[in-house]
Design brief:
Elements: H1 2-9, H2 13-23, E1 25-27, E2 36-38, E3 49-52, E4 55-58, H3 63-72, E5 78-79, H4 80-87, H5 92-100, E6 105-109, E7 112-116, H6 120-132, H7 144-156, H8 162-173, E8 175-176, H9 179-188
Parallel strand pairs: 6-8
Antiparallel strand pairs: 1-2, 3-4, 5-7, 6-7
Length: 197
């Protein structure tokens, strides 16, 4: 930490900051950026992240900048859970702030938000990939929240086909659900569709 370094060197904080700027350094993206390391120390992984004793450093800079980089290069966006695994740091609060500020976009897939790059061309490609992605277990049921939202839409318009229900959930709720998952839900719960739907 900066104060510890200043004490060990017996220099004022402003002088230590000047030294660090001359030598080159990285600040941690975790722990509110209070940890410093020399630019030559980190052994970054292919995503530009390095951990030392539970402290996270990124060649991309701050936590928000690192999230932006990771989300931007992901084919189908990333969930908060996936980002937390990569960064070894919780991200829900930061992602909420970034989304409200327009720094990231998001889409709900199988009941979980996936965070996307806001740049139009990348965003379109990520949305297509997210929609096409299958859940880890193809036989898994819809989440409770997804099932409830789907049933609400079905009650409103019982004549919709499974494909139309999936499209309506995407349009009305920003929730990406495969029509096959909806069909399976109806079969599992022995629900009858309106004839011709």
């Amino acid at each position: 930490m900066l104060a510890e370094l200043a004490q060990a060197l017996d220099y004022a904080l402003i002088t230590v900051r000047r030294f660090l700027k001359q030598i080159g350094y990285f600040r941690s993206y975790s722990d509110n950026g209070k940890w410093y390391t020399l630019r030559s120390s980190p052994e970054f992984n292919r995503e530009g992240i390095w951990h030392h004793r539970g402290i996270g450093f990124s060649k991309h800079g701050s936590l928000t900048a690192t999230i932006g980089y990771l989300v931007g290069r992901s084919p189908a966006g990333l969930s908060a859970r996936e980002l937390a695994q990569k960064l070894q740091h919780p991200c829900h609060a930061v992602l909420s702030i970034l989304h409200k500020g327009g720094a990231v976009d998001r889409v709900k897939v199988e009941g979980e938000f996936r965070y996307l790059c806001p740049a139009e061309q990348i965003n379109r490609r990520q949305r297509q990939q997210a929609a096409a992605a299958q859940p880890p277990n193809p036989s898994a049921s819809l989440s409770t929240q997804t099932a409830l939202l789907m049933l609400v839409e079905y009650i409103k318009q019982p004549g919709l086909s499974f494909e139309q229900l999936a499209a309506r959930l995407q349009q009305q709720r920003e929730l990406t659900v495969a029509s096959e998952s909806i069909r399976r839900f109806f079969e599992e719960h022995d629900l009858k569709k309106t004839p011709g739907a």
